Amino acid sequence: MQRTPLNRRSFTLLAAAALAAPALRAQGRPEKSKVSIAVGGKAAFYYLPLTISEQLGFFKAEGLEVEISDFAGGSKALQALVGGSADVVSGAYEHTINMQAKNQFIQSIVLMGRAPQIAIGVSTKSLPNYKGVADLRGKKIGVTAPGSSTNMVANLVLSRAGIKASEVSYVGVGTSAGALAALRSGQIDAMSNIDPVMTMLEQKGDVRIISDTRTLKGTQEVFGGPMPAACFYTHGEFVKTHPATCQALANAIVRGLKWLQTAGPSDIIKTVPESYLLGDRALYLASFNKVREALALDGVLPEEGARTALKALASFDPAVKPEKIDLAKTFTNEFARRAKEKYKA
What we know:
Layout: H1 8-26, E1 34-40, H2 48-55, H3 58-61, E2 65-71, H4 74-83, E3 88-92, H5 94-101, E4 106-111, E5 118-123, E6 140-143, H6 149-160, E7 169-172, H7 177-184, E8 190-194, H8 197-203, E9 207-212, H9 216-223, E10 230-235, H10 236-241, H11 243-262, H12 265-271, H13 281-291, H14 303-316, H15 334-343
Helix pairs in contact: 1-11, 2-11, 6-14, 8-13, 11-15
């Protein structure tokens, strides 16, 4: 049988269909209905969009059954992904850059935070006469977990004062009651952590805040630009082979972000587990009001933010060489944009 040659119109239609295929696949039923998510400190506001989307059934509405494993810090959650026990991580965007520097490609698929929400405070008991960052040389600094984003921000602030990471001792303290106890008992001299922990320590007079990225203004001052924070990230190969699953995850988070834009204090209290309040409802809500603007609006990660993150990491980590990092491979906004359109976020 003789084949009829393709005319220009047929070729154009086929080409258009090929280009549309990934998008159509992403809008179908999830390839993987059961998804394991690793997170480092789920009760923190840093991961509030994850909790909201879980508690309000947004993942289920997208055809997903999520199993969330909570770890002491972001670096532990990353290890779960690398080790194969998690499909996706709810964690800090900068891990995508750090991992690419080690020749491993992971990618952000939806943004949850547009400011790191990390504050550094010095103990008013251990360092009552604190005068500047140089006073932290030789001291013990609490972080959620060594290698986590709280550790990264501490390294950045210390490096600007001429202090190397090797000149302090980092202690993993988690993100909840254990962190409060570590500082109040004198086990550590300072702490780099997230809310509600830092606001609770600050309001009780336990710490003096010396660096603060819980607001957009504070983030600009510390990083010199927008700094993407919490996101869903996973292996680049998973994104290619599970586009509909990634789309469902992004849809759920963007819906949660939209809900958070209009939620009042009573809505938050009713939705999060009681244990998240750390025994002080009023302080929990005070913390929420402080970090609210740090939450992402629509899941889209700004390109300028990716550049800010690379510049920050390269400033203190010699393993991160900007000329060798392809930022385009560290995130995709494809799923967030589609979710934004679906939910008018």
